[in-house]
Amino acid sequence: MGKWTDVATWRGPTENEGPALTTHRGLVLHIAQGYYEGTIAWQKNPDANVSSHFVIGKNEGECAQIVDTDRQAWTQRAGNSSWMSSENAGFVPDALTAWQIEANARIFAKGHLVYGWPLVVANNPTERGLGHHSMDREGIDAEWGHDDCPGSNIIKQKQAIVDRAIQIVNGESDDMEQTEKLINDTGSSNRTVGNVLADVENLRNWLVSTPGTSTLGTPPPGSVGAIMLESAQKPPVNAAELWAIMREDTEWRLALAGDIAALINRSSMTVSLTGSMSGSAVPTT
Ligand SMILES: [Zn+2]
Predict the structure, then answer these.
(1) Separation of 180 CA from ligand 1 center, angstroms?
(2) Which of 47, 150, 217, 278 is at 20 to 30 A from 136, Cα to Cα?
(3) Interhelix angle for 176-186 vs 250-265, to 10°?
(4) What domains are there in the chain, each with its CATH number?
(5) Helix, strand, coil % in the chain, rounded to nearest 5
(6) Is 80 exceeded by the pLDDT of residue 171?
(7) 31: CA distance to ligand 1 center in Å?
(8) pLDDT given at position 219
(9) Phi and psi dihedrals of 48, rounded to 5?
């Protein structure tokens, strides 16, 4: 299933697509030499014989997916079998708008999570990461066509897209799903993912300093709660290390939010937004 509806609006399908990709090296940037809706319409026209996985307009919210990410789009010839693609509305020598940088970064960050694309700039078809159409010239004996695509101004913006994708992957942006879960699980309306680090550190310190820790009960083996309880008795698992793991894995972050909520529910402990804690370890159930 390769419809990325969390980062784009599905506007496919099109007949202009090939078989499954043989490998996933990354994302190739293009400039459409056209406008947003016109490019989408053209890619859906069987006579055009062209397509891209994504079409990104200049205005916020304009991000369409035309081809399933598991299928080959027809946009860079020999590169179609191993690279995905985004067509960005505009004409050479346009630079990407702020929205186009953001939309490409979201796609690139998701490709990192789904296909393992490295979060780096690629400048050669033999590399992996964020590429651009005309990089075939500097690379192996490849002919991807369109030597002026996407133009030097967009090529200069590749690092900015990579930097933003790294931020997204590291959770340094609002993440509605996680924030929602934290609010639901803790019953507090003003919690955000950014407070979790303080929670971990303070909860651990509280476990260390408070007698009767064991009456909190036994969290499931391997859960974050178990790790925190263990670390309370046996440093050096600390907040920074936990945070490093959390940054790697969204599922893990969600589990941590749930475990913190469970530990709070099993005690009379209260947690304030500033991270200070009070209460006792007497279980409420
Ligand atoms: Zn191109």
Answers:
(1) 39
(2) 47
(3) 10
(4) 9-169 (3.40.80.10), 176-278 (no CATH)
(5) 40, 15, 45
(6) no
(7) 6
(8) 47
(9) -75, -35
What is the SS3 assignment for 271? strand
- E runs forming strands in the chain: 9-10, 17-20, 26-31, 54-56, 63-65, 71-73, 83-88, 129-132, 270-271, 277-278
DSSP notation for 5-40 = TTTSEE----S-EEEE-S---EEEEEE-SB-HHHHH
108 C-alpha to ligand 1 centroid (Å): 17
Closest C-alpha among 129, 47, 39, 48 to residue 83: 129
Rounded distance from Cα 271 to ligand 1 centre (Å): 53
Quote the ligand 1 centre to 114 CA distance (angstroms): 24
Burial 66-84 (b: 16+ CB within 10 A, else e): bbbbbbbbbbbeebbebbb
Find the 39 Cα to ligand 1 centroid distance in Å.
12
**Do residues 232 and 204 make contact, with C-beta atoms less than 8 angstroms apart?**
yes
Mean pLDDT value across residues 126-144 = 80
| Tens-digit pLDDT profile for residues 71-92 | 999 998 889 999 999 999 999 9
**Ligand 1 centroid – CA 167 distance (Å):** 27
Gap from CA of 49 to ligand 1 centroid (Å): 14
What's the average model confidence in pLDDT over 19-32?
95
Contact 144, 77 (CB under 8 A): yes
What is the rounded average pLDDT of the residues 132-138?
82
Question: Residue 53's pLDDT band (boundaries 50, 70, 90)?
Answer: very high
The CA distance from 259 to 256, in Å, is: 5
